[in-house]
């Protein structure tokens, strides 16, 4: 599927479209260059799911946990600062990835070898006009 985000003004609409088209997957790996909008888009998705917590990039914490409107947990990961896979093993990634809750991963290319087989790969690219294209 593909969504175009023309500006921040329509990011919530794009997030809703993403949720409508994401299927039954639980683990979503977001690929894109620095500044492509991964965190901003994940924030919009979480807001559409009813998260009322402050949603920020877990760059230093590695994972942030949010609660959706239905009470279910959502896990938001940022692996940008990962130096060794041992750090991910130590955090108990399997409990998150295989626990049945939604997981949104930024910088998954740094942990590619341990991603679940059924991970949904999402690519965000910046277009020449400044809009973003989301493909999964």
Automatic annotation (TrEMBL):
It comes from the Bacteria. Belongs to the TsaE family. One of its GO terms (molecular function) is hydrolase activity. It comes from Segatella salivae DSM 15606. It is found in: Cytoplasm. The gene is yjeE. GO terms for cellular component: cytoplasm. GO terms for biological process: tRNA threonylcarbamoyladenosine modification. This is tRNA threonylcarbamoyladenosine biosynthesis protein TsaE. InterPro entries: P-loop_NTPase, T6A_TsaE. Its main location: cytoplasm. Keywords: ATP-binding, Cytoplasm, Hydrolase, Magnesium, Metal-binding, Nucleotide-binding, tRNA processing. Gene3D superfamilies: P-loop containing nucleotide triphosphate hydrolases.
